[in-house]
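Data availability (excerpt). The following record was deposited with the supplementary files.
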Amino acid sequence: MISVAYAADAAHHAVPFYADAAFWVGVAFFLVAGLAFKPVIRALGAGLDARAAKIKARLDEAARLREEAQEMLATYQRKQRDAMKEAEEIIAHAKAEAERLAQQAAKDLDASLKRREAQAMDRIAQAEAAALREVQNVAVEVAINAARDVLASSISADQAAKLVDKAIAELPQKLH
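Predicted structure:
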């Protein structure tokens, strides 16, 4: 009965909640958890902020690189267009130059053909003149030989000697 009496006595004399050790252990636990929670939250926040800053920096870098790439693409497209225009101009110039050279070559060929034709005509004329001279020389020789034969058969020796003497006498006048 003592124990029942003691329990009844203890129930009448109840200890206030703040005097109980379990209460203070709970308060201390929540206080330590609260104090530890604040730096952990700060560290988590700082980590998340740092990660967000890295992501933002990467996004900014990606945007900058994209803009640079677009500028480079535009520059190369402009250079390609300029190169194409220049190539077209070069081709047009080359075609015009080739056409001019072809016309010049045709003129040169025509002039060369005319020169060669003129040279051939001159050679033909020279050959005709040489042939005519040769024919004339042969005709003169034939005539001289015929005249000699005729003279030799128709003149006497005295007449021939007189003609030779006369030709010798006229020789100095013909040489001057």
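Summary of structural features: The chain has one domain: 2-175.
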